[in-house]
Write a structure and sequence with these properties.
- By secondary structure, the chain is mostly helical.
- The protein is about 50% helix and about 0% strand.
- The protein is built from four helices and no strands.
- The radius of gyration is 14 Å and the shape is globular.
- It starts with 15 loop residues before the first helix and ends in a 34-residue tail after the last helix.
Length: about 130
């Protein structure tokens, strides 16, 4: 799958989201691109299912994505952290490319970062320091 196929027929090629996805994925090549593409596709699919524009997402909305990965999908903490690293990089690149004024969700790929109120027994995620 190519970077243009991540969004398939969901948005036109000139749409800012399509440009943001292409701009982010062109940083990678080979298997790294394949894995980044897969993780980004998971986030964009979740956004679509929740009728959320990824370029307008807020930190609490991204935290809901983290909760979904943890509590519904029951992904390992390392997988959640990796996927959030991709999401954070996607937003940073969108800012660098001028597609966003600032990174919408205030998050970091630093594994020491945690959501504002993690539920008891919840794995660590990577959004912001408590």
């Amino acid at each position: 799958m190519t970077s243009s196929q991540v969004l398939s027929d969901r948005v036109p090629d000139s749409h800012p989201l399509q440009l943001a996805v292409a701009g982010y994925l062109t940083r990678y090549k080979g298997l790294s691109r394949t894995h980044a593409e897969s993780d980004l596709r998971a986030y964009l699919t979740w956004c679509q299912q929740h009728r959320l524009d990824p370029l307008a997402a807020s930190r609490p909305q991204v935290e809901l994505y983290v909760r979904w990965m943890q509590e519904v999908r029951r992904l390992k903490p390392s997988t959640v952290s990796r996927r959030m690293s991709i999401v954070a990089g996607f937003y940073r690149t969108a800012v660098i490319d001028g597609l966003l004024e600032h990174s919408q969700p205030n998050m970091s790929a630093d594994p020491e970062y945690r959501p504002s109120h993690p539920p008891s027994g919840s794995p660590i995620c990577c959004l912001r320091r408590c």
